[in-house]
Design a protein that fits this description.
By secondary structure, the protein is α/β, with parallel strands linked by helices. Helices cover 37% and strands 17% of the residues. It has 2 domains: 5-202, inorganic pyrophosphatase (n-terminal core), CATH 3.90.1640; 208-328, Diaminopimelate Epimerase, Chain A, domain 1 (Roll), CATH 3.10.310.30. The chain binds guanosine-5'-monophosphate (5GP) and manganese (II) ion.
């Protein structure tokens, strides 16, 4: 479903009638969550609005891949987010629980604008700008800026480009439409260093990551019988792995992209233990025959059709068997 015209009108009205706006994105922000939030934040600040941006997970650190983005000075720790914001805008967040320790602000804010593209979005805002067909939340933000008559400066284009390439896998995924490329052309025309942005996201990691990848990949398992014979490849990133290699959870986002190259498996999964809370964050990808977004919803998580996740309080073995069970009965999508 795309957003209705009335939602756009309401969203523009909300943003135009507030001179103080609080922005939040999902816990453990990725390039689209952070990029879409910073883009709107910069645009609002440029127009004289008091803006702050945050997310509700610890440690409150900008992942290294995004450390050179403009607008990071808008960020405040979760504890500094007003207890009852006048206008709260959420980015790339499919459900309230994904706001972590900031989830309560949805109830205390006077108005909540939800900007998102998750198929599993629960429409928890007073106004919901949700477009499941948008390749990234950042795409919706650009349309919003256009409708508000705000300029797309190079400072804004950089975080938008970050969201766009994160969620399209650098223009490789099915969500990459002609309009995605047209938007990319618009962004490049502002003079952004797209080469540097891409390198920071895809081609830069601490040397320790190579070592961690070695361990994680060497214990990966291929289960050809799983998913009704379509195959599952999976591995784990333990708290010990992270400690041994001196890495954070945000450093290992790319592990799933290595595992999912396995030709023999339709579905890939990485079970990552969060050293902060001991919970297992499960990342799942499919190649087009299984709706892993729906699958993860049934396991308490959410996401997109071919990229999704859930969080598990169970031990690793229990989590894997719950996943296997759900995959065994998952309906196959038409080819
Ligand atoms: P990733 O595997 O890159 O962390 O996440 C892939 C997609 O699944 C993202 O759109 C993300 O928002 C969603 N996702 C990942 N983990 C969770 C989770 O624990 N709960 C929910 N609701 N969505 C998740
Ligand atoms: Mn997204």
């Amino acid at each position: 479903m795309t957003a209705a015209e009335a939602d756009w009108t309401e969203a523009v009205r909300l943003l135009s009638s507030h001179d103080d706006v609080t922005l939040v994105c999902h816990v453990g922000p990725d390039g689209d969550a952070l990029g879409s939030m910073l883009a709107l934040g910069i645009a609002l600040r440029d127009k004289g609005v008091a803006v702050r941006a945050s997310w509700g997970s610890r440690p409150f650190e900008v992942p290294a891949a995004y450390a050179a983005l403009p607008g990071l000075d808008l960020l405040v720790e979760a504890a500094e987010v007003p207890a009852a914001p006048a206008l709260l805008v959420t980015f790339d967040t499919g459900s309230v629980d994904r706001l972590g320790v900031l989830a309560d602000r949805v109830g205390t804010a006077d108005a909540v604008l939800v900007i998102d593209h998750h198929t599993t979005n629960t429409r928890f805002g007073t106004v919901n700008l949700v477009d499941e067909r948008a390749a990234a939340t950042a795409v919706i933000v650009v349309e919003l800026l256009d409708r508000m008559g705000l300029p797309l400066t190079a400072e804004i284009a950089a975080p938008v480009y970050t969201g766009l390439i994160t969620d399209t896998g650098s223009f490789k995924y099915a969500a990459t439409t002609p309009s995605v490329h047209e938007l990319a052309a618009r962004l490049l025309a502002t003079g952004i260093r797209h080469d540097v942005i891409s390198r920071d996201i895809w081609d830069t990691a601490p040397f320790a990551y190579v070592g961690l990848l070695g361990s994680v990949c060497s214990r990966a398992e291929l289960d050809s019988d799983a998913v009704n014979g379509l195959g599952l490849v999976w591995s784990t990133v333990t708290a010990e792995d992270l400690q041994l290699h001196g890495l954070a959870l945000s450093d290992v986002e790319g592990v799933i992209d290595v595992l999912r190259t396995s030709r023999e498996a339709e579905v890939a999964a990485v079970l990552k233990t969060d050293p902060e809370d001991g919970l297992i964050k499960v990342s799942i990808r499919s190649k087009g025959q299984i709706d892993v977004g729906a699958l993860c919803s049934s396991l308490g998580g959410g996401g997109h059709r071919f990229a999704a996740g859930f969080t598990s309080a169970d031990p690793c073995e229990v989590t894997v068997s719950r996943l296997r069970e759900a995959l065994a009965t998952a309906p196959h999508l038409p080819a």
